[in-house]
Design goal:
The strands form 3 sheets. The protein has an 8-stranded mixed beta sheet, with helices on both faces. Strands 8-13-10 form a 3-stranded mixed beta sheet. A two-stranded antiparallel sheet has the order 1-2. About 0% of the residues have low confidence. The chain is built from 21 helices and 13 strands. It has about 575 residues and is of the alpha/beta class. α5 links the parallel β3 and β4.
Length: about 575
């Protein structure tokens, strides 16, 4: 027993990159040498020389941030086979899926994401999946109801045959376990049955989407969607699946949520939806750990939750793992990523470098959070058993719901989640999902997902790091999640425009990394790493100027490149 308790759950490995460091340092030295030369020659040249000096100064600054960020790359190896030997009673996990538009985000994609989550290799009685529908679409709800019926077949099938890819549309593409002559007759029969049921689900979903108004008659359980408007509707919460008993092939809880919206109330986009998911799950299941994924991020590795738990439970100090981030990997990758929508350089190089500092930034999907960290707890208070955060004056800042305040107190103390009947929590869930609940509270400012930027993920991660928490990056094989990247011009450009704007909003807000370093606990090199991608939207200005500079110099017959002088004999 003593040997089992000493089994490692993860290992931290520092990458050897001596050659890469030497090349990076040499390039930085050359850039600085060029700047020094230009500076001392500035008085002998005109405007082109000055503009070149300004642009190259920016390039040198960015490269110095790059070198600092990727100087100490690390990676983690997990041992999920040891998890239950050390922790026989695994903790509960709440899983969040967010969708906002049934046209841009087809329900069949959301359905596949949900099915892949419900089928992960983890005890079903420890899981609950919450789907946030910000469009209040009856089509999305209808698709989830139909998917819940299919899940009762799909989840046992995946666990019985140890299916690797647990999103059915990816599984039936043919790049998973094929139907061949070596397969058992029982497997062939089950495979054909499951495939037929999935095709029926797809057909029902597509036929519902083709209807001009609503996918079905708005009666019975669909009556709540009658005469609703996307930006003006009451809260709708539906318990689609509720786990009962301890059956091994049971399906986890599945809850549909469409928060209340009113035209005169700010809803804060995805950050607001995530905060509602956090509160509703808090009164229903209150799991100590939360996973959030976008509706198009499919589980690609069924061991993903166990791997995350290796980090979250295996750390000697909770400060080391405020959250666990998995990289964004895309299936069906383009051979030529013309719009750089897959961020390959950042995923493969910069993130591993940030992992050697305070950890990677929060990417908005594929991330496991400690609930008490999202609630705003500082590492020091966690060590003191949160004596400073259990007074009524502090707790009441989370809102006026007695049920949620009670669950918050338990979460901050690190207690396990609830096992109560979900239906008993519906009244409190409607209360915490109302658009007026956050009025006069610290939601969006000191706890939850932080408001103030269109990229709420980066701002929330920065706030967590500023409190002194660290994060970790896990890069398992096969990748934990796979998603869809924008492959067409307007979609990719719109996504990058939103990201660049949101990052600049963080750069100029009061919670920027420079302030967090001076007044909070953000490490200096982590500050530099945040600056590296926060100024990403500004790169285009010096790059454009430097690109047109040669043409300008040709037209004006003025040099901007240093001349090589030949010694005459």
């Amino acid at each position: 027993m003593a040997n089992e308790l000493s089994l490692p759950l993860y290992e931290k490995i520092a990458r050897r990159n001596t050659i890469q460091r030497a090349l990076d340092a040499a390039l930085l030295f050359l850039l600085i040498s060029l700047l020094v030369y230009r500076l001392f020659s500035l008085k002998n040249h005109g405007f082109p020389w000055l503009l070149a000096f300004a642009c190259e100064s920016w390039f040198t600054f960015i490269w110095s941030l790059t070198v600092s960020t990727k100087w100490n790359p690390v990676e983690y190896i997990t041992y999920p086979e040891n998890l239950e030997k050390r922790f026989p009673d695994l903790p509960n996990v709440d899983m969040f899926v967010t969708t906002a538009d049934p046209v841009l985000e087809p329900p069949i994609i959301t359905v596949n994401t949900v099915l892949s989550l419900l089928a992960v290799d983890y005890p079903a009685d420890k899981l609950a999946c919450y789907v946030s529908d910000d469009a209040c679409s009856p089509l999305t709800y209808y698709s989830l109801v139909e998917a819940s019926k299919f899940a009762k077949l799909w989840v046992p099938f995946c666990k019985k045959y140890k299916v690797q890819v647990r999103a059915p549309f990816r599984y039936f593409l043919g790049d998973s376990e094929p139907l061949n002559t070596s397969s058992s007759s029982e497997f062939k029969q089950d495979w054909l049955k499951i495939k037929a049921e999935y095709e029926l689900l797809v057909r029902k979903t597509e036929e519902a989407a083709q209807k001009s108004s609503v996918p079905c008659d708005l009666i019975g359980e669909f009556a709540d969607f009658y005469n609703v408007e996307r930006h003006n509707h009451p809260t709708i919460i539906k318990i689609i699946l509720e786990h009962r008993g301890t059956v091994s092939d049971a399906v986890p809880n599945l809850v549909y949520i469409s928060r209340e919206k009113k035209p005169n109330k700010p809803h804060h986009y995805k950050a607001g939806a995530m905060n509602v998911l956090t509160r509703v799950s808090g009164v229903m299941t209150n799991a100590p750990f939360m996973l959030n994924v976008d509706c198009d991020m499919l589980v690609n590795n069924p061991q993903v939750i166990r791997q995350a738990m290796c980090q979250l439970l295996g750390s000697k100090n909770e400060r080391e793992t405020g959250f666990v981030q998995f990289p964004q990997v895309f299936y069906g990758e383009l051979r030529v990523d013309s719009y750089a929508s897959q961020f390959v350089v950042f995923q493969k190089y910069m993130s591993c470098g940030m992992a050697g500092l305070q950890g990677p930034h929060y990417m908005g999907t594929g991330c496991f959070h400690r609930r008490k960290v999202i609630y705003g707890l500082w590492p020091e208070d966690a060590k003191k058993e949160i004596r400073n955060h259990t007074s009524f004056n502090d707790i009441k800042e989370f809102g006026n719901s007695e049920e949620f305040i009670s669950s918050t107190s338990q979460a901050l103390k690190g207690k396990k989640g609830f096992t109560n009947n979900l239906s008993n929590s519906l009244e409190a869930s409607f209360q915490v999902a109302s658009c007026s609940y956050e009025s006069g509270t610290i939601w969006g400012t000191k706890c939850g997902w932080i408001y103030g930027s269109t990229v709420e993920d980066a701002l929330t991660g920065l706030t967590i790091h500023a409190k002194g928490w660290n994060s970790t990056l896990l890069t398992p094989e096969p990748p934990a999640f796979t998603g869809i990247s924008p492959s067409w011009g307007p979609g990719a450009m719109g996504h990058q425009k939103r990201s660049a704007t949101g990052l600049l909003e963080i750069l100029v807000c009061k919670n920027n990394p420079i302030t967090a370093t001076l007044t909070a606990k953000l490490q200096f090199r982590t500050c530099l790493a945040y600056l590296w991608f926060l100024v990403w939207g500004l790169h285009s200005i010096p790059e454009l100027c430097y690109a047109v500079l040669p043409a300008y110099c040709i037209l004006t017959n003025s040099p901007f490149l240093p001349k090589v002088r030949k010694n005459t004999p």
